[in-house]
Amino acid sequence: MGEDKSILFTLVYVAEALTLFFLGLGVAHYLGFQMDWEHSFLGLGWIILLLLSGIFLRSSFLSQSYSSTGKSSKNTPDDPKISRSFILAIALLASEASLTVLLISKAFITPQTLFIMVCCVIGMLLLSLPTIRNYLNGFQEILFSFMMVFFIPLFGFEIQAQDVHRMILMITVPLFSLRLSATLAYELATYATDIKQLNSTLLVRIGWQNGMFLHNILILFGFLLIILAVIFGMSVSIALPAMGGLILGLYQIWAMRKIAEGRKPIWRSLVLGDFSLYVLIVYLLTYSFWVR
């Protein structure tokens, strides 16, 4: 069951990265840059390889950690599963390095693109290596959300346009807010288990009451930022479809308030609603940029 869940999360992360990358490409398309699909698919391949290598690297270290702390009697340092995860991570990183050399040799990347790539690699290592990850306990969710919703669209835009634009910031900050609120909803559903297993998540760090309040503030903040983006130059035709998700956002806030007041929670509904809100806004923004 745990392995099936791990595969599901991996597929979800890959699908999310794919969509966010095309969001960055959509911004470049909307701003009038000529699409070069060879650039795009090589860049997408680079992002997917980095994401998968980070997932497998983290998985191999976590398995060894569980074995050493006695949390799992099935996994040992000699477990072939652990070795397979580590070998896959190394193979993916080697492919990543080869693809980086190919991108540089074809002059597809500028110094600022290379800087973004280095930041992505550093972020992956921060989230994967246990020695460093321990210092980020309770804040890994913030870094991971930032890496996903900021650097992936930025890289997609940069590798196509070889430039930066304020539009990327206008769309990624609201998405960061909505993704983090969805993460808090998921951690609220697993809060009791995390406390029991001593998992130092963001919600465990800040407390469930603060987490509920922050969840609601983040949803409102996300839509407020979309309105502010219009004031600072985003087209109403781009922002208006995304604002349609406000109805679902308000419902999620209402549902969270009812739980805070003592109503029996339906965790699956709450978590699904929050992630649906995030996915909906990502989709509507991506669609709007590509059709305009």
Task: Explain briefly what this protein structure is.
The chain has 292 residues and is mostly helical.
Largest sheet: none
Q: What oligomeric state do the depicted chains represent?
A: single chain
- The termini sit apart by 43 Å
Question: Which H/E pattern describes the elements?
Answer: HHHHHHHHHHHHH
Count the E strands: 0
The stretches of 5 or more residues where confidence is low (pLDDT under 50) are 71-81
How much helicity do the residues have? over 70%
Give me the number of helical elements: 13
Shape descriptor reads flat
> Could you say how many structural domains there are in total?
2
Q: How would you state the average pLDDT, rounded?
A: 88
Rg for CA atoms: 20 Å
- Approximate strand percentage: under 5%
SS-derived structural category? mainly alpha
